[in-house]
Amino acid sequence: MPARHEGKFPVTLIPGDGIGPEIVESVLEVLETVGAPFSWEQQVAGMAAMEKYQDPLPQVTLDSIRRTKLALKGPLTTPVGGGYRSANVALRQTFDLYANVRPARTWISGGRYEGVDLVMVRENTEGYYVGFEHYFPIEGDPHAVAIGAGINTRAGCRRIAEFAFDYALRNGRRKITIVHKANILKALTGVFLETVREVGKLYEDKLAIEDRIVDACAMQLVMDPSKFDVLLTTNMFGDILSDLMAGLVGGLGMAPGANIGKDAAIFEAVHGSAPDIAGKGVANPNALLLASCMMLEYVDEHATARRIRAAIKAVLTEDRVHTRDLGGSATTREMTRAIVARLAS
Ligand code: NAI
Ligand code: MG
Questions:
Q1: Domain 104-251 in the same topology as domain 1-95+263-345
Q2: Is 211 a catalytic residue?
Q3: Can you give the residue ranges of every domain in the chain?
Q4: Alpha helices in 5-119 (DSSP H)
C-alpha cells in the first residue's frame, strides 16, 4: 500500500503522449483546487521517453513507481505493427497490475441510454497480451505466416475472480457476468470460466453470478445495458468491451480506468493519445480526472473523490459545458475552469 510522506502520497506522474500533457495539466489544476493529498514525481514513458532516453519505459520511471507504488498516467502512443512493444502493457506486466477496473456510467442524459452504470473488471496480465507472437517466412515473404498464442493460468484466473467478487461486494453491486468464449477457445477461456465459477461458489449467497459468450454479450450490451452490472473477463475481451461500454455512455472522453496489483496501482483514462486532436486544446480531461478520483478512493480519500465527481456532474448537466466529443464546443481549458469554479464556490 502507498504511504504518506509529510502528509502526502508521493505519486509518479507520467504526462504521456498526444493529448496526455493537456489533460494532465487540467487534472493537476483540479486536484490542486481540492487540496488532494498528492505530491508529484514527474517521469516520462512512451514516445516522450523514446525521445529523451531512446527507451519507451526508462529505468528511472520504473524506479519511481516502485518507490511511490502509485502512478497517474496520460495515454502513451504505441506504434502499430513494428516499432517498440506497448509501454502500457509493459507497465502492467512489470508491476503485475492484474486487475483493470473500468467503470462506465451515464453523465449526461439524453444519450442513447439513461442511467447506465457498469463496471468492467478485466484480467490485465495474461491472455493474448503476453506477446507470444511471431512470423514464419516462406519463400522470401517474411510475414507469410503469423502466429499468436495466449496464456491463461489457473492462478491468474483465481486472483482476478477473487478481486472482482470482492470489488462487487465492497461497492454494493448485485451481479457479476463472466464473459468468455469457451465454446471455441476451449482451453484458453475454458480455464477462465471454470476457475471463476469455482471461486464464485463462495459468493453465491451474496451476488448473482451468470456467464455469457463474448459475442452475444456485445450484442446484449448494445441492446440493453441495464441487464448488466459488473462484467468480468479476460484481457482482450475486456479491452474491446470496455471501449464498447464507453460508447454506451457517450464515448471515451468520460471513461476512466485503474490498473491494480498487490504492490502498485496505475490510474489512467481508457482512451489513447488521440493524435487527431493533440495540441488543439479540445480534449475532454474528464476521463483522466475520473481516473484521479479512483486514485483518491484507492487511498481512502472518498469525500474528495465525491466532491470532484459532483462538480463534474454540475458542470455537465447544469452549466452545460461540453467538450467536442460530448457534442459541445468547450475547450479543455474552459472545461477545467468550469470544474474549478464549481469546486471553489
Ligand atoms: P484514442 O483513444 O486515442 O482515440 C480514439 C478517438 O477518440 C479519437 O477520435 C480521439 O480524438 C477520441 N478521443 C480520445 N480521447 C479523447 C478525449 N479525452 N477527448 C476527446 N476525444 C477523445 O485511440 P487510437 O486513436 O486508437 O489510439 C491512439 C494511440 O493511443 C495509439 O498509439 C494507441 O496505441 C494509444 N493508446 C494508448 C492507451 C493508453 O495509454 N492506455 C489506450 C489506448 C490507445
Ligand atoms: Mg483499449
A1: yes
A2: no
A3: 1-95+263-345, 104-251
A4: 20-33, 47-53, 59-68, 87-94
From 63, 166, 215, 263, the catalytic residue: 215
In tens, the pLDDT along 66-95 reads 999 999 999 999 988 777 888 998 999 999
Q: Is the pLDDT score of 319 beyond 80?
A: yes
Q: What is the pLDDT of residues 134-148, one digit of tens each?
A: 999 999 999 999 999
Ligand 1 pocket, residue 242 CB under 6 Å = no
Which pLDDT belongs to residue 52?
93
Query: In angstroms, rounded to a whole number, what is the distance separating the alpha carbons of residues 299 and 233?
Result: 26
Residue 167 known to be catalytic:
no
At the topology level of CATH, where does 104-251 sit?
A: Isopropylmalate Dehydrogenase (3.40.718)
151 C-alpha to center of ligand 1: Å?
A: 27
Query: Is residue 299 packed enough to be buried (19+ CB in 10 Å), middle (13-18) or exposed (0-12)?
Result: buried
Regarding pTM above 0.90, the answer is: yes
Q: In which residue are the cell numbers 493537456 written?
A: 22
Catalytic residue, from 17, 181, 203, 298: name it: 181
Within 8 A by CB and 6+ apart from 345, the residues are none
State the fold for domain 1-95+263-345.
Answer: Isopropylmalate Dehydrogenase (3.40.718)
Nearest to 41 by CA among 4, 89, 9: 9
Give pLDDT, residue 121: 98
Q: Is the CB–ligand 1 distance for residue 77 below 6 Å?
A: yes
Give the pLDDT score at 312.
98
Centre of ligand 1 to C-alpha 302, Å, is: 28
Residue from 14, 19, 44, 252 whose mutation best tests the ligand 1 pocket (most atoms within 8 A of CB): 252
Confidence of residue 277 (pLDDT cuts 50, 70, 90): very high
Pairwise CA distance, residues 26 & 288, whole Å: 9
**Model confidence at 193, in pLDDT bands (50, 70, 90)?**
very high
